[in-house]
Design brief:
Methyltransferase, Cobalt-precorrin-4 Transmethylase, Domain 2, alpha/beta, five-stranded parallel sheet, Cobalt-precorrin-4 Transmethylase, domain 1, 13 helices, seven-stranded mixed sheet, Rossmann fold
């Protein structure tokens, strides 16, 4: 049984590739969502059409028509946010089924071609049934392509951009691409809010300052901190390098203080999650301010004294302990029970805590961890009249378990 998974492009039948056209022509049955089928129905008379987009229902139609050649058609390209991937996996369970794939022209490639944008520079997001982290992606990518859910969804993204301070960025909005009522507009977020936007739309956001983004080690001055201690920039940079956070990491910041480490964790784990645990109510308010100021949508703030507030710690793969309120051993007992064998970084400035960490490192080795201890001593310049002198900060001991 031949099953053809066909990307038909954006909807204009003139953009259907010759190979895709031949595959549909040879098929006895064509299956697809109503809008997609309607766009090609008149060009392929004599076919039996089924209007369906649900993967399992499509699989049942195919089962019921064994022996027929069948084309399942999808909008755009079958490799970009397509239901084709799920159906492909489902069809692999069928016996004597040959799956043929036919790419189409995606809204991404079409809009990039129309606006002379190099597609290799574009970060791809979808807000169609998804909740993406917009701030990080816009801030760190020159071009960000977004498929929205509808016209109001496009306006909601514009409102978010304005709230993030990205109100001066150019947005190229593509509506009804390839159709006779196609419209491509480049404007600021404010301008798009006043437009009547089609539900069939996508956009590319251009950020010329994306290369200026700092990966980690932000200046201390950018954080709201009041009188709550902050992990200093240089020390924070070493901590984050030791943690080696991935984009999808699940992180814990225990004893989060003013939240500087949590904020930078959130930027690195932009597809993951950060749990910030803090017991000081004054610090909690500062963390809230920093979460708002940095639009750190993936931080969950937990007002508790560890080991309380660690309900999700067994899911974590990166853990920083900057303060445990005297409960370091209790916290480590929970971490050692984790099957994920997370990377843990602990800091100390007192010799008593260093002695406690030394015992923990011995336990860690018995649990199969590798360990290391680093001591860093940072001095920063300070103007004294016409001169500059170096002022030493506290020595910080950094333990790593992995």
């Amino acid at each position: 049984m031949n099953i053809n998974l066909v990307g038909i492009g954006l909807g204009n039948p003139e953009l259907l590739t010759k190979a895709a056209c031949n595959a549909i022509s040879k098929s006895d049955i064509v299956i697809g969502a109503k809008r997609i089928v309607d766009s090609i129905r008149s060009d392929f008379v004599g076919k039996k059409f089924f209007l369906e987009y649900n993967t399992e229902k499509i699989a049942n139609i195919i089962k019921s028509n064994a022996g027929s050649e069948i084309s399942v058609i999808f909008s755009g390209d079958i490799s970009l946010f397509s239901g084709s991937s799920k159906l492909f996996e489902r069809l692999k369970t069928f016996k004597n089924c040959k799956i043929n794939t036919f790419p189409g022209i995606s809204s991404l490639s079409y809009l990039c071609a129309k606006t002379n944008i190099d597609i290799s520079k574009v970060k791809i997001l979808s807000f169609h049934g998804k909740d993406e982290l917009l701030y990080h992606n816009i801030g760190s990518n020159e071009y960000t392509f977004i498929i929205t859910s509808n016209g109001e969804g496009a306006k909601e993204i514009c409102r978010k951009l304005i709230s993030f301070g990205f109100f001066d960025l150019d947005i190229t909005l593509g509506e009804n691409l390839s159709y006779v009522n196609e419209r491509i507009t480049t404007a600021k977020a404010w301008d798009l809010l006043d437009m009547d936007i089609s539900d069939l739309n996508c956009m590319i956001i251009f950020n010329p300052d994306s290369e200026k983004a700092i990966s980690f080690g932000l200046p201390d001055e950018v954080f709201a901190r009041d009188k709550v201690p902050i992990t200093k920039s240089e020390v924070r940079a070493v901590i984050l390098s030791k943690l080696n956070i991935s984009s999808d990491s699940i992180c814990y910041d225990i004893g989060a203080g003013s939240g500087s480490v949590s904020i930078e964790m959130a930027g690195l784990a932009y597809e993951g999650k950060v749990y910030a645990v803090e017991k000081n109510p004054v610090a909690i308010e500062l963390i809230k301010k920093n979460i708002h100021n940095f639009n750190a949508e993936n931080i969950e703030l937990i007002f508790a004294k560890a080991p309380k507030g660690l309900e999700h710690i067994l899911e974590a793969d990166r853990i920083f302990i900057g303060g445990s309120g005297g409960e370091l051993n209790a916290v480590m007992d929970i971490i050692f029970a984790s099957q994920k064998h997370p990377t843990v970084v602990i800091t100390a400035i007192t010799l008593e805590t260093v002695a406690q960490i030394s015992d923990i490192l011995k336990q860690a080795k018995r649990h199969g961890y590798d360990t290391e201890m680093t001591a860093i001593n940072v001095s920063k310049s300070k103007e004294v009249g016409p001169y500059n002198m170096m002022t030493a900060q506290n020595m910080v001991f950094i333990a790593k378990l992995w």
